[in-house]
Amino acid sequence: MPLPKAELHLHIEGTLEPELAFALAARNGITLPYADTDELRKAYEFADLQSFLNLYYGLMAVLRTEDDFADLADAYLARAAAQGVRHAEIFFDPQAHLARGVGIGTVVEGLGRALDRWGSPRSSEAESGGEAAHGISTQLIMCFLRDESAGSALETLEAAKPYLAPHGPIVGVGLDSAEVGHPPAKFREVYEAAAALGLRRVAHAGEEGPPAYITEALDVLGVERIDHGLRCMEDPELVARLVRDQVPLTLCPLSNVRLRAVDVLADHPLPAMLDAGLLCTVNSDDPAYFGGYAGDNFDAVREALGLAPERLRELARNSFTASFLEHDEERRARYLAEVEAYEFGA
Ligand SMILES: [Zn+2]
């Protein structure tokens, strides 16, 4: 049985596996520029950030209807459940879909169908004793593309209003895509508007951008978690602040290797970050493209970095501590108790 964990840094568009991409393309009458899943899988071995982004945005063309988004989320949640994920806070990029003529309602209604299905224990699988017998609690976080304009972000927030918590599934806003050259302060206004609406706030910062972007995301955008945040280690004062305030960092180790934030996993600063007292979590980012889901990332850091079982337990505990479960502390306590009770195999 896998270690129970929460996933806090997961782009649903990044869970599109080659088989599903072909199935959705066929359903929607779209011809992909690949002969078959083998050829597409080879394209997933991208060479650099730009070839990843080209493939990532190109394949989104197959996502057109509510059914497509429901099937995408369903496939992710099945894989996540099998790897011990109990709670997932899922990112999506409304602007990337709007640009293709797919409205935010189609995305949210479709994703929501799968999230609702997985929100309670799976009775049929519970009866058969399957590993995915437990349900998964979920929330949605809409991300603004930081290489788009601040005005576009404001329009996107406006369009999302019918789907915001407490009545809808969207609990927060985030900031993703190409970081360098697009500092957090560019989005001050939309984050202020999100705060006024009672939304939670996170942002990608300090992945490829400098540590100053992390400070700016905290000070100007008022974010509660930093996505990635790897480069905080270059600034001891920032590390001291993040430790003091216990600001969660959502690290994505396999993503860092594939996008060359670190050369090899053995060089990943995760152990040093934990030793420094940072509240680190381990997540999968875009698992179909980066070589693995949440449990795969845990396995990879255990092997490459020699993390002891109690370190893994700390990471799992952190994932629930850092999750936006303030509306359901009873659930958080239940998840945390599961982590403490977990027995590591030989
Ligand atoms: Zn990300």
Automatic annotation (TrEMBL):
Its cofactor is Zn(2+). Binds 1 zinc ion per subunit. GO terms for molecular function: adenine deaminase activity; zinc ion binding. The active site is at 207 (proton donor). The record marks 228 as: Important for catalytic activity. Substrate binds at residue 286. Residues 4-332 form the Adenosine deaminase domain. It is an enzyme of class 3 (hydrolase). Keywords: Hydrolase, Metal-binding, Nucleotide metabolism, Zinc. It catalyses: adenine + H2O + H(+) = hypoxanthine + NH4(+). Its EC number is 3.5.4.2. Zn(2+) binds at residues 9, 11, 204, 285. GO terms for cellular component: cytosol. CDD domains: ADA. InterPro entries: A_deaminase_dom, ADE, Ado/ade_deaminase, Metal_Hydrolase. GO terms for biological process: adenine catabolic process; hypoxanthine salvage; nucleotide metabolic process. Gene3D superfamilies: Metal-dependent hydrolases (3.20.20.140). The keyword Lipid metabolism does not apply. Catalyzes the hydrolytic deamination of adenine to hypoxanthine. Plays an important role in the purine salvage pathway and in nitrogen catabolism. NCBIfam families: aden_deam, PRK09358.1-6. Belongs to the metallo-dependent hydrolases superfamily. Adenosine and AMP deaminases family. Adenine deaminase type 2 subfamily. This is Adenine deaminase. It comes from Streptomyces dioscori. The lineage of its organism: Bacteria, Bacillati, Actinomycetota, Actinomycetes, Kitasatosporales.
